[in-house]
Amino acid sequence: MMNMKFHFNNPTNLIFGRGSLNQLGSLPMPGKKALVLISNGKSTRENGYLDRTLEQLKKAGVETALFDKIMENPIKDVIMEGAVFARENQCDFIVALGGGAVIDASAAIAAMATNEGDLWDYVFGGTGKCKTLEKKGLPIVAVATTSGTGSEMNGFGVISNLETKEKIGFGDPGLTPVLAVVDPELMTTVPDQYTAYQGFDALFHNTEVMMSKGVNVLSEAIALSAIENITKYLPRAVKDGKDIEAREHIAYGSTIAGVTMQLTSTIAQHSMEHSMSAYHHNLPHGAGLIMISKAFAEFFIERHACDEQFIKMAKAMGMADADKPEDFVTALVKLQEDCGVADLKMSDFGFSPDEAMTLAKGARSMQGGLFEANPCEMTDKDCAGIFEKSYR
What we know:
The protein is α/β, with parallel strands linked by helices. Helix content is 47%, strand content 12%. A hairpin with a 4-residue loop joins β6 and β7 (166-171).
């Protein structure tokens, strides 16, 4: 029986499509002075995206202050530094120009620029103190430069705490960007390996929604649409980053995932990867997801937890005659081979086989809520078994 109940409330004004950054200056802004948030890498500057964004903000009559310290897996200390910087510069909104890490970080900085204490006071899970935000965060304008997280459509991000070796989701619906610009032309410079990692992150947001026991009539329809677009176009984008048509379709699949995740929770695959990159901070999120994806799907296939959902996904991934859940794994492995990421090894990122139970317990303590959305029970032993099976 299809679940016909859902709750959809998205306040984001989404401007999607080629050249949409050029519209930014003519759109209403939520404030007068923006904290412009970018990564600590060179690409945003070198590719001219920063200058173009600043020019658009100037056209809109907005003053700016630049904060350029966000790294791939954003850490709590930098979030707190950014919040102090926003206050000192009297910024009344944030423009997050970047990929998932920058947009994730913007939600946390927006909250801590207006609320007292430490970010971990407001984190639910692990050693977080589970306090509720007292004040509304700064409004956020998101300008996405990668396709992966869908963060431009929701008010949640994942932040690492190096002291406690935790990586936990943080956020609030009130931190959802008020405006999002998704311009595929800004994505043509992402290197092929990262295009693959980010594309698979977007794919797994949608496949996890499909496997979730909370999937509903709307989240399923748009998740399947996203899965179809990503599968068809990701190998092309990996092969030729300048293929704007491919970039457009993957950006669509990623942004749509930001909506599917509001309608239906992802499941424990994401908890498990966050544990992996909490203990091995150099691991790109998408790479970790790819490494465990086959064994993760096989766990539920062996238990016949959601056979129909796997068949629907295999069909969306191009196997028109799919009639058994194992067809999803066949389609998934083929896509990984086509994108050159089928041979990723946990050992290359410093993992050892005896870490499996530590990672499993970490996944549950940091993001145990996602286990609740699994289509059947997964114990710590089961979870450790998936890590062991994935280890190479």
